[in-house]
Amino acid sequence: MKRLVHCMLALLLVFTVSGCETAKNVIRQAAAFEIGGPALYQGIPENPDDVIFRSWAQVCYEGPAGSLKELIENSDAVIYGEVTDVGFMESDLLINTVASIRVIEPLYGNYSAGNVRIIKEGGYLPADVYYGIHGVNENTVDESGRKIMDYSDEELKTKYVSYEPDGFICLKPGDKGIYFLTKTNVIKDGYWITSAPFDGEYLENQDHQFYVYLMKEDPADPEGNAFFTFEQVKEAVQNAIH
Q: What is the pTM of this model?
């Protein structure tokens, strides 16, 4: 079984918050749907300039990438579903996406009838929320070098902090995909995408093909994507079970 190692190349810890002051009263209530767990925030940047700080991670593997059978063996469920709601939560300086998925067709294992909630790494938080949680000091700056303490409360409410691992795709309502899921207690009725934010997430494109971001270079596809039909994935899942 492969082990996932996050090689953080741009850590949010660049914000030096030890001994910091609380940000200027910038915490606001989450505009969130109820998830029975951590606060969940909705909203994404309307343009790239709205993100004042980005962190990202290169996801590295020790050993081979593993097989579909291994992926299934490490999953509690495999479903084909449609995104109905999307929110984001803070998690130990990182940001995770939490999405509600309407199950269209279960392909394997235990699942909750109707909707399930999935967690994947990456996403966006309003800057006032992020800095309200972690605080700021004189050394806390945005990507341009501007001090966060120089922002007004109103400015921070219109800006975002992002975390975007390799291959991250921000889910939105209406997106469909096949998800390999592992049960978690982080949120009520929640599942992590198995193994990585990428292997266990086959997203459906406008041509009704399912694609996965591969964690290795493929000469035939330098962008690192592989495409499958629904029947191919379904057959592969069934073959791997038996």
A: 0.76
